[in-house]
Design goal:
The chain is an alpha/beta fold. It has six helices and five strands. Helix 3 packs across helix 4.
Length: 139
């Protein structure tokens, strides 16, 4: 698991394990987003297992599975709504963290400058420059 901090409200990561949840809690995260469909890859831990353990640690867990490369406007709107009401900071994970950072970027296109979105993602290790046209279309 890698912690890739986008900003003070969001950190993204690749797939997490049950063992990672205590570290996530210790670092003060209040909400976990999973943007991965269950059974996307062999051996992947089911969201329900993560959710149960997260709840036992006092962390809310939200499952919003999306398919990489197929993020719809509805996915963006749902992420935006989930993020807006989530207790911060949020820890989001998927297979590599790219879907999570992409959802954040697209959901913030109307409220943050595109250069700032791309810069924050780049600093966290995600090149979202291929999204420039879509980000601009959401302005």
């Amino acid at each position: 698991m890698k912690f890739a901090k986008i900003n003070n409200e969001l950190t993204v990561s690749d797939q997490i394990t049950i063992e990672n949840l205590k570290e996530i809690q210790a670092q003060g995260y209040k909400t976990i987003f999973c943007n991965r469909p269950d059974q996307e890859s062999e051996g992947q831990l089911a969201f329900s297992v993560i959710e149960k353990e997260a709840q036992s640690l006092g962390i809310k867990a939200i499952h919003q599975p999306v398919i990489g490369g197929q993020i719809s406007d509805d996915d963006i709107a749902q992420f935006s709504c989930n993020f807006e009401v989530a207790q911060k900071p949020v820890f989001a994970y998927c297979r590599t963290g790219t879907r999570c950072s992409t959802l954040w970027a697209l959901s913030h296109a109307k409220i943050l400058p595109i250069d700032e979105i791309l810069s924050k993602a780049q600093i966290a290790g995600y090149d979202l420059s291929p999204l420039i046209d879509r980000l601009n279309s959401l302005k």
